[in-house]
Amino acid sequence: ASSSSSLTFAVRRSEPVLVPPAEPTPYELKPLSDIDDQESLRFYRSGIYFFRSSPSKIGQDPVAVVRSAVAKALVHYYPLAGRILEGPGRKLAVECTGEGVVFVGADADVTLEDFGGDLSPPIPCNEKLLCEPESSSADIIGRPLLFIQVTRMKCGGFIFAVQICHCMADAAGLVQLLIDIGELARGADAPSVPPVWARELLAARSPPRVTHQHPEYEEVADPARDRISPADALVHRRFFFRDEEETACLRRQAPAGLRGTCSRFELIAAFVWKCRTIALRYDAEDEVRIQFVVNARGKRRISKQPQLPRGFYGNAFAFAVASSTAGELCERPFGYALQLVTEAKARVLDVGYLQSVSDLMVLKARPRFAVARTYLVSDLTKSGLRAVDFGWGEGVYCGPATATLATFHIPVEGGIAVPVRLPPRAMERFCIEFQKLVHSSRSSSTSNAESPLGRVDSGLDLGSASGLGPISSKL
């Protein structure tokens, strides 16, 4: 709900073209892993970057620069220039045909300043900035795997929008690709971290055997009793957690045993889950969930998985799930929600968990993850989004282009932005819960009194934005 929420502008697009690798690449058939080809990942994930004009780039066309760098990058990421095939058991593989990826150049009658200072999803007129209509599901078989649009703004800056088949890469893998395109755009001869396929490391065993419970693929009872649907008339808000204030206040209210060990993501995710559940007014006995991504890369990688090589750009994550009755989550202290979140993450980090997911996919015919009465959230703060640089410097905004019922923790200067999408009356109740964090964080830096916590992003007009009426304390 930033000042740009009602912004409209015209975009003039060139005809889409296929950009193939800049050099010949091998023809191969490369199977995807059993983490890659989950039913739930068979769609295109979007991302969008806004870049300022640069005095050092006067006279250089970002459309031409990026297009040339994409062609060079596809020499190294040549599977992305191919097409996906489906085999027996719905097993997916990439036919490395070298056909190329879709690229569009465009011009927009808008300046960066017109978007305001608080960009967050949904980006205004995102349908004009993305090559393809955004969808949570799409036919990926035989289609291009990457769509890119570079839109020049009349201020000299530009917008880079990308859509990638999620079966090919997760957020970390996509960011790696974009960083490498940026290096090539700035004159490098090759990526500093060469991409690695290695999907066989996350394949199901033979024979497959499920060794863990996987509630992420098991529906809650009476899923139709959810209180929210993408088809509803929903409103959007961007909530901002400053490191020195709101996040610190949440940490002070964490149980002593978790205060020094829980992450910033766990604190904020647990808090938003609780506020969202209060706002949606589920029945006390309804099971409600939070579901979030745990990455298998890095120091805290999922235990006993084969070490993924540096440069691996496939999907390498599992979904952690915490659940509670709505009554308990709403009535018990904040520490209860936080404990559930940290325990859920620990279960996914257990020995063999991700391997068990791979085996489940084969044994259960690739089930979708459950979404009813579930808060879906993903942490983008450590994904390296801001390291992408095509020669014009760091992006002003780097993150999702569109808004869904799932949300993200987006890194911004001084803290974390969390976009939330809810029905209007539920959003009013959510804002009331969130405002309590402002008062709690301002009233005392040492108070340990338990309360629901929150703060609405500065500059947000709660009385008029998105057509809401005045907030009432009697809601």
UniProtKB/TrEMBL annotation:
Belongs to the plant acyltransferase family. One of its GO terms (molecular function) is transferase activity. Residues 443-475 are annotated as: Disordered. This is Benzyl alcohol O-benzoyltransferase-like. Keywords: Transferase. Residues 443-469 have a biased composition (Low complexity). It comes from the Eukaryota.
